[in-house]
Amino acid sequence: MRKTTLKELPEERREYLRIEDVLDVEVERPDVDAPARTASSLDMSAGGIRLSGNQPVKRGDMVWTRFSVPTPEGDRVIESLCEVRWASEGDAESTNKYLFGVSFYDIEPSDRELLLRHVFSKHYGIERSAGPSVEATDLRGKNYGVESLRGVSLEVAAGESVALLGPAGAGKSTLIRILATSQKPTSGSAKVMGFDLATQKKEARQSIGYMPREDALYDKLTATENLRFFGRAHKLHGRRLADKIAEALAFTNLLEKAGEPVRKLSPGMRRRLSLACAIVHRPKLLLMDEPVDGAGPALREEFHNYLRQLKDIGVSIIMSTREAAEALESDRVVFMIDGRALADDSPENLMKLGFATVKLTVGGESREFRTQDYRTELPEALRGLGTEISRLEKVEICENTLDDIIRDHFLPGGDAE
């Protein structure tokens, strides 16, 4: 077998995910008498994962792989039958004699997701900084010549997620564009990862991932080609770029569409590809302008899962939304209207401002009371019924939503005024 360097391998081989640098892997040949199960292949990248070893292998061989993946509950062992798709001698980067790529068969979807999450997080390579990811002071900005941001200050800790909640025209997009360095503020100051956006814009951009409301994808290019374009914009090339493209596609569940022209992708796939393009260079801060606006429940849940994983890695996230239910998924909610931030607190603290209306139906008669702590006051109300408790027919509880709380406490004419 001729000595082959990794650089000389065809591109699809270089795009196989590296795993041995983050996991111990055991590779065994299966019993030759056992028939190979050939269910749908669940590749993690352009063809699977890249391995190395000292035992000779050839294309078409079937091997068993075993991984021990750490989880909060302890190590979890994952086993799967794999097919060798290509093989060559090792290179300077491999301590073993042989280099080969395998694809999975019959791997459980939950095991695949766990393995992918672990590999992605280890390769992300983020280190939590002691200082804040974002420091913005009295930012002002314009949109089409009209002031749309009027003195907003914001600080975001490393690994924190913040939702900018508000109606159209609240100034959310202007704030995100300023932090993404795609728009200059008219006044005020901002730092990202300690870099001043006024004087250190280039340095700051390497730490920023930006997903605009309208995608910036190139319809004639494939998913992989779009990722390559955005990766090169962040000075990624060669193997490093190929690895990051493969992992970004795997992370956003777009492996099967890697070679598909973007114009043929569904709207949901385009949103997932936009996210992949925003994180291909492994930013420490992810800025998203209404990422799931108009999306269905399935895509929303997918994005919530992606963002939870990124946050667990240590990525700081700022996303804008017009929907209170979306904002509740974040660590903090900043409510904006008319270019100003009127509230900035955790979802739990904001929900404490709300009331619940408790309705008791006793002998056909309706009795209501309003409370901020129905869990304490309802039992007291039931005890107060005395002998009438036998005539109790129904108990109904209607709690305020975050929309109700914002209307009552932060908008002109609210009930709390």
Please give a structural write-up.
The chain has helices spanning 11-14, 109-124, 172-179, 201-205, 223-233, 238-251, 267-279, 297-313, 324-327, 347-351, 374-384, 402-410; strands at residues 17-18, 25-28, 49-53, 62-69, 76-89, 98-105, 134-143, 146-156, 161-165, 187-192, 195-196, 208-211, 285-289, 316-321, 332-337, 340-345, 356-362, 365-371, 392-399. It contains twelve helices and 19 strands. Helix 2 (109-124) packs antiparallel against helix 6. It is globular. The strands form four sheets. Strands 1-3-6-5-4-2 form a six-stranded mixed β-sheet.
The amount of helix comes to: 25-40%
Radius of gyration: 27 Å
Unreliable runs: 1-10, 36-43
Mean pLDDT: 85
Biggest sheet, strands in spatial order? 1-3-6-5-4-2
**What does the largest sheet look like?**
6 strands, mixed
- Please provide the count of β strands: 19
Count of individual helical segments: 12
Q: Please report which band the strand proportion falls in: under 5%, 5-15%, 15-25%, 25-35%, 35-45% or over 45%.
A: 25-35%
How does the overall form come out from the CA principal axes? globular
> Which class do the helix and strand fractions yield?
alpha/beta
End-to-end separation in angstroms reads 81 Å
